[in-house]
């Protein structure tokens, strides 16, 4: 039997997430920090902080973890974090002479902080709802958390991207149980501010490799379950 949604936990989580987002993005709170990587990471701390507080306060056991249902943390770390760092840094080195590994790691850590809240807490809390309602409600709250209140065509397009992302990242969360994996898929939208032929190819390679890895993993688990049954 599925447990009921803890609405008080949802409310507390969202208040903390929104408050942190406002303070770090709309005020001068972080202006004294000289490190741009740290500043960028802190702008996404709200969901992680909110989730951590409600986990402790309401005694909610987290379902996702860094390792997830992999046997070792090394595999998801290598596939979902080391691989994009190496790929993006290598392409950048041969095309621009730079190695932006710190930038890529910053994007991944930022994605992890967000995903601790969105998929680690809220997506799980809304599991009682029908999947379509889960996705739409989470996407709406995620959209508003970005402090997008103009509702222009661009913002509606962004909302559509978040709906698609909520569906896709939710599938990854269910398949792997790994915050490392979901943070990587989350980061696909943040690796490059603008899309061109080169960045599009990189994103395509990452997505293709990760999807293939998920499909192979699913088939291997299915084969193992069939073997045990026989």
Which helices and strands occur, and which strands form pairs?
Elements: H1 7-25, H2 36-42, H3 45-57, H4 74-96, H5 101-125, H6 131-145, H7 153-176, H8 179-187, H9 197-229
Helix pairs in contact: 1-3, 2-5, 3-5, 4-5, 4-8, 5-8, 6-7, 7-8
Protein name: Membrane protease YdiL (CAAX protease family)
Keywords: Hydrolase, Membrane, Protease, Transmembrane, Transmembrane helix
GO molecular function: peptidase activity
Task: Provide structural commentary.
It contains nine helices and no strands. It has one domain (7-203). It is globular, with a radius of gyration of 18 Å. It has 230 residues and is mostly helical. Helix 5 (101-125) packs across helix 8 (179-187). One of its GO terms (biological process) is proteolysis.
């Amino acid at each position: 039997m599925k447990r009921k949604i803890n609405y008080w936990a949802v409310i507390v989580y969202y208040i903390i997430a929104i408050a942190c987002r406002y303070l770090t993005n709309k005020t001068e709170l972080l202006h004294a920090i000289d490190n741009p990587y740290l500043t960028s990471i802190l702008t996404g701390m709200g969901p992680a902080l909110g989730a951590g507080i409600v986990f402790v306060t309401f005694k909610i056991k987290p379902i996702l973890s860094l390792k997830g249902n992999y046997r070792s943390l090394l595999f998801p770390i290598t596939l979902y974090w080391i691989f994009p760092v190496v790929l993006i840094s290598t392409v950048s080195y041969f095309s621009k002479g730079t190695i932006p590994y710190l930038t890529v790691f910053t994007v991944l850590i930022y994605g992890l902080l967000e995903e601790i809240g969105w998929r680690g807490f809220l997506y799980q809390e809304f599991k009682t709802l029908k999947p379509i309602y889960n996705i739409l409600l989470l996407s709406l709250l995620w959209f508003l958390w970005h402090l997008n209140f103009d509702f222009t065509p661009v913002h509606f397009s962004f909302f559509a991207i978040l709906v698609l992302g909520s569906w896709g990242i939710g599938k990854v969360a269910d398949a792997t149980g790994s915050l490392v994996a979901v943070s990587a898929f989350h980061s696909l939208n943040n690796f490059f501010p603008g899309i061109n032929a080169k960045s599009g190819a990189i994103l395509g390679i990452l997505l293709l490799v990760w999807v293939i890895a998920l499909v192979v993993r699913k088939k291997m688990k299915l084969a193992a379950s069939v073997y045990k049954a026989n």
